[in-house]
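Sequence only, no structure available. Ideas?
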Amino acid sequence: MALAAGCCLTAAACGSSKSGTASTSADGITTITVNDEPASTDAVNRKNFLADIAAFEAKNPKIKVIPHEGQMDPKTFSAKIAGGQLENVFYTYFTDPAGLIAKHQALDITSYLSAFPLVKTVKPQLMKVYSDSAGKVYGIPQGNYSMGLVYNRTLFTKAGLDPNSPPTTWAEVRADAKKIAALGNGIAGYGDYSKSNTGGWHFTAEMYSLGGDVAKQGSDGKWTADFNNDKGRQVLQQLHDMRWVDDSMGQKQLLEWADLLQMMGAGKLGMYVATSDNIPTISNQYKGNAADYGLGPIPGGGGTLAGGGGFMFNPKDTPAQVKAGIAWLSYKYLTPGQGEYDYARASAAKQPVGLPEPDLWTGAAEATRTSLVAANANVPVQNYQPFVTGNANVPLDVEPPNAQQIYAVLDTAMAQVLTNKNADVNKLLSDAEKQVNSILSTVQ
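Reply:
I predicted one. Tokens follow.
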């Protein structure tokens, strides 16, 4: 804020773009606004963010960066852009770019990228998230995650299973869950969600793992539900049978996000579908031992629910602002060992280093990341190798449109098969299909 005020003390020293954001001053300094600044309550990451701005500006004296807290809020985005309040460079989730591109609410930056070689090191499948059907690029990924199988290596060993070879099919998950549950003492072999939208989220991940989908877009651009089929029945029927036939999922159901992490931390759960960042949370917040946990590939391997985010550009940015924005992103988010991925700094602050994601880079950049992680790792990297190997070629699938509304509907189907022994899987899918089609009918 002080920087912004200092820039605009005199009209001669501060120009503006059509969006009302700061542009290039008379002395050739380009000022950009960016979001993603951590909140003041996140003291360590906020300090690092501001330190990175200072270091970037020292290397690029003709660029000034004004940070804003927070990220994109889809509920207020249209009003923000209409009112000229949108940052020059703004954070989006992977579910946002397609809609923003279609509505012309983000700038085509394709012609600028050749001057920034670090962008070329980003995985093509991630760049595709920020591209249109013609291959034009509207943003740059910053990080990503995908679903795998978090499992308790100690329980695997006690159950006579190989902790270095987690299951890779759903049939193997079922068989291994029975062996783990047979240990008794209140241990569940496998856990799943069915409340607060987490059940629908996991149903979607499990559909993707079978090569299925939850929603599909027709040639006319309209979306419809795509889970009332054999794959949808397979997901629900397996959960029903594990719960009621095998008794391998425990008696307590209607679980939501924290429940499975707490069970895993207490040594009462063998496996569940999750992302790698669950592991430090289990260790730090739920008092688990990091060495106990492994990460395997998504069972089935037909696809994995992927998420993450990156940055897009205000459609009213000037060319100078676009260049400055890409330079900032290259420094802060695209360089292994620097900025967001300063592994030495993170390790010194006791933040986890060595998790298998974000899986952002290719080629020499990825080799550099691997070397730096190995030198600064403070988590048991070897425990995650099954995920790294097994998920390497699994297709990445992003969430459906209106995801949270859809997840709320699918919660019911998940809850029913886990709490009602006589649940009618076909009826559950049919009822959910009608509701999801109604939700999807509003997608533009």
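The radius of gyration is 23 Å.
Hope that gets you unstuck.
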